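Quick log. Single chain, no ligands specified.
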Amino acid sequence: MEKAENLSVVLHAKGDLRLEQRPVPEPGPNEVLLQMHSVGICGSDVHYWQNGRIGDFVVQKPMVLGHEASGRVVKVGSNVKHLQPGDRVAVEPGVPREEDEFFKAGHYNLSPTIFFCATPPDDGNLCRYYKHSACFCYKLPDNVTFEEGALIEPLSVGIHACRRAGVTLGSSVLICGAGPIGLVCLLVAKAMGAAQVIITDLSTDRLAMAKDLGADFPVTVQRADGAQDLAATVQGMLGAQPHISIECTGVESSVQTAIYATRPGGVVVLVGMGSEMTTVPLLNAAIKEVDIRGVFRYCNTWPMAIAMLASGKVNVKPLVTHRFPLEQAVHAFETTRQGLGIKVMLKCDQNDQEP
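-> predicted structure:
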């Protein structure tokens, strides 16, 4: 293993993305060393590349990108009992560093000191070999592919959002945005029993994918559309205001639409990351007793996601539209930046480029 190459995708600064060799890490007692297989490119990876920061998270030293990942165990730490070399695993990228009040309450994603792949200053896993906490590596059933394992990360955002929203049998749901996160919210909402899902986007191609994945009403949005007019369109198509709106764009007008559209007593969940300050019709939400709930990543979702995939209740395979070997990472990032396709997947194992 000492002689193995560890080609890694490293962001040095805004706009400076490089492929370079790094040492193969040695796992600690509670860690495993993984030979990475499939790693998806997330919008946040591209945002760090283009802007050098997301909010208060600023790239100040070279950082390996990537956090939507799966791989094969090649070495286990001395304390690891539930995994062994050869196991295929999905990686949960957020690992709490301490057993603080958030950890004890089951909300470890909210811990201020959490380790998170590819969030400064923590390195991600877009590389050939990567070590990770064994407790946050989940064994994949034989009928779940490596790519599905990598897609558990975005799928988990959908699971956490739908849980926060209270999606249940018979719910009517508006999803704003048909990008990767909007589409996984659609898949999860349907799996959780939503009766009607209406989804909006500027892109007719993405809405066509949403229709294929089970959306009942795809709605093409024009940039000039007013928030209240779009809310009225949603109500007209559903025959009533939706119980739940899940906002996945972060765009101010879209957040406004979500609030205007939601029925009295309903729930708006904010998934998309937009401007720090956003103007919204708060009075409209207040007099309708609409709950506005935030979402930050996810917690306790990997077991449910694996069960959903293994049972066939959720099919994420159509989301992968482009595949590149790790050596072509810069081209893959450019493809994602241009908004081509839905999910771009990088294949990190030279000897296994299969899904």
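DSSP finds ten helices and 20 strands in the chain.
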